[in-house]
Design goal:
It is a single chain. The chain is globular. Helix 2 crosses helix 3. The protein is of the alpha+beta class and 243 residues long. A hairpin with a 4-residue loop joins strand 2 and strand 3. It has a single domain, classed as archaeoglobus fulgidus dsm 4304 fold (2-Layer Sandwich), CATH 3.30.2170.10. Helix content is 26%, strand content 25%. A ten-stranded mixed sheet has the order 6-7-8-9-5-4-1-2-3-10.
């Protein structure tokens, strides 16, 4: 399991140009009902330290962690943090973690945006296009768009997330939905779901809602978040850290 090196544009204008080109390769269709192996990806960093990523291989049917891989990138090689350009910062180290897993997953669940992005290519969408793997983005905060309606406080409720070209608070006009505002736990702040690649809008919501969760994050992504933080704090070596 290996892919070409992730592109590293010299500046933000080059990065934006690449995003506008690659967005045309995003496929917003696909059935995830047969996804058996899911790779959940999250990263952790502290100023002046290496960027640390965790890839958690999740067994969808048995709802369990099969394997965890960690990869790191030294601070001098980390792309600057700029909203809207997260893929250039985190995708290279995610790819390294995925390769270390030793198993190609059926799909990716990424901490970040899919198409809910100013240029339609957040980190989940960019990773999907680069690897050819189906992908979904799950973000803890909004980057782009607005909710088309009021989200109920009850667990499992969702409202469409619309492009800012739509009138926020009214139903999304056709073609302007970019994701979902999803209440994963009753009376807890929602998460922002958006298709990345090879998945439809409705399937994005169905699949994420089907995953177990004990907090606001779906469990595979919560595990990736915990492992990335632990690997950074404890200085875990790169490679497989659990299997």
């Amino acid at each position: 399991m290996s892919w070409p090196p992730f592109p590293s544009p010299p500046d933000l204008s080059g990065a934006a140009r690449l995003q506008r080109e690659l967005v045309n390769a995003v496929e917003l269709n696909g059935d995830w009902s047969k996804v058996g192996l899911l790779a959940a990806l999250d990263a952790s960093i502290k100023r002046g330290e290496s960027l640390v990523a965790a890839a958690v291989l999740w067994d969808v049917q048995n709802e369990s962690v099969l394997r965890v891989a960690v990869a790191k990138m030294p601070p001098q090689k980390v792309f600057p943090y700029v909203p809207g350009y997260l893929s250039f910062r985190e995708a290279p180290v995610y790819l390294a973690a995925l390769e270390t897993l030793g198993t190609t997953p059926d799909a990716l669940l990424v901490d970040g945006q899919g198409i809910a992005h100013p240029r339609g290519l957040g980190v989940a969408a960019h990773l999907g296009v680069h690897t050819g793997l189906p992908s979904i983005g799950v973000a803890k905060s909004r980057l782009f768009g607005g909710a088309a309606g009021v989200l109920d406080q009850k667990e499992g409720c969702a409202v469409p997330l619309c492009s800012e070209r739509a009138l926020v608070g009214t139903p999304c006009r056709e073609g302007l939905q970019v994701g979902w505002l999803f209440r994963s736990r009753t009376a807890v702040k929602p998460v922002y779901l958006s298709p990345g690649h090879k998945v439809s809008m409705s399937e994005t919501l169905r699949f994420v809602a089907s995953l177990p969760r004990s907090t606001k994050l779906p469990e595979p992504l919560r595990q990736a978040h915990l492992w990335a933080g632990r690997a950074r704090r404890e200085g875990l070596a790169e490679g497989l850290v659990f299997e």
